[in-house]
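Memo to structure team: turn this sequence into structure tokens by end of day. - J.P.
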Amino acid sequence: MTVEVFGADEQADREVALGPLVALSRSVLEAEGVRNGAEVSLLFVDEPTIAELNERFLGQEGPTDVLSFPLDDEPLGPGRQPDAGGTGPGEPIEDEPPDLLGDVVVCPIVASQNAERDGVTYDDELALLVVHGTLHLLGWDHEADDEAAVMEAREAELLRAHWSATWAGR
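Reply from structure team:
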């Protein structure tokens, strides 16, 4: 079993290179030690959809760039989960259900606006948002300044390793 990332482009406002972004999310999950059949959904949606999700789940008005919806409050670590059963420690179960980590929802229009404001390419901004959202599924946070600095450094490291040469100098 491998890490599965299911991607869907559910908007028509901006073109999305779905395959490379799905591969990026998978690479981030693997780099963070996630294995054994974990699943993530990566969705690209329009402004009204992300605005509705932002208000419904975060109480914030208007569209945002990325939202993450972990399915469990406890981040999953590598390996089998203790209550998964099986014939012995560390032995995979052939019909074991996947670990559903959650959903990452990205708004390409807001990403495009961010890219223009920050002087980066649209594709690099989408990649940053995919890495950011994927890390949130794994329990990374940026509420405090010190957490933000650590998360931003990890994002840059992952982008350098798994995205493009654009990030090599950052």
